[in-house]
Amino acid sequence: MANSSSITEFLLLGFSSLGELQLVLFAVFLCLYLIILSGNIIIISVIHLDHSLHTPMYFFLGILSISEIFYTIVILPKMLINLFSVLRTLSFVSCATQMFFFVGFAVTNCLLLGVMGYDRYAAICQPLQYAILMSWRVCGQLVATCIISGFLISLVGTPLVFSLPFCGSNKVNHYFCDISPVIRLACADSYIVPLIFICISYGFIVHTILKIPSAEGKQKAFSTCASHLIVVIVHYG
């Protein structure tokens, strides 16, 4: 991840301009953090303890709740600390690490939601084959695919972001190391990074669509992505 940057750390501006309101924000975000954690833990516990919920739909919901907990832990604790801290810096490596896990869990969550949609499609449209289509082995493979794909995308994308030269300001106008605010600090043309992200994402999407057995299913899936793809082509064209 080495580059020609003169920046060794980033300063997270976050809510620093709000003065005393930061105490109010701390209380609000702390409550939200505890609600998110307790809510997801309750969901996981209920699914684990109630045997009637040991179905693919609730299995995916439980995995999504676990992923949501880690996704929240990546962002909120550091943000809460920064609301009380005068020195709000993150080292180059710490910022890259936060972005890696943030992107990894974010993409994993999106893929899991897609799998949950497929599960409902199989239950409604293929009820006779549902037990085969969504066996526990298949469910495990789908979850593993979501997690591996999510972190592979992050493993490719995060080094691309931090391989850009950062030679100007180190002030990130955000409360954590998100992709867009960090890319804005680069001294090079950064359009290539989001374009690569989009290409990688569509590579996974096309790979998934091609696995759909029916031609009608493939056509519907491609038509769903067509409008966004047109916008991307126009934007970069």
TrEMBL record:
> Where does the record say this protein resides?
Cell membrane
Report the coiled-coil segments: none
Q: Name one GO molecular function term.
A: G protein-coupled receptor activity
Transmembrane spans: 23-46, 58-76, 96-118, 138-162, 191-210
Has UniProt tagged this entry with the keyword Transmembrane?
A: yes
GO cellular component terms listed in the entry, alphabetical order: plasma membrane
The cross-references to Gene3D superfamilies, in alphabetical order and at most eight, read:
Rhodopsin 7-helix transmembrane proteins (1.20.1070.10)
Ordered alphabetically, the record's keywords are:
Cell membrane, G-protein coupled receptor, Membrane, Olfaction, Receptor, Sensory transduction, Transducer, Transmembrane, Transmembrane helix
Domain (G-protein coupled receptors family 1 profile): residue spans on this chain = 39-237
- Topology of this chain in the membrane: Multi-pass membrane protein
**One matching Pfam family, short form?**
7tm_4
Give the UniProt family note: Belongs to the G-protein coupled receptor 1 family.
Q: Per its UniProt record, what PANTHER family does this chain match?
A: OLFACTORY RECEPTOR
Q: State the protein's name.
A: Olfactory receptor
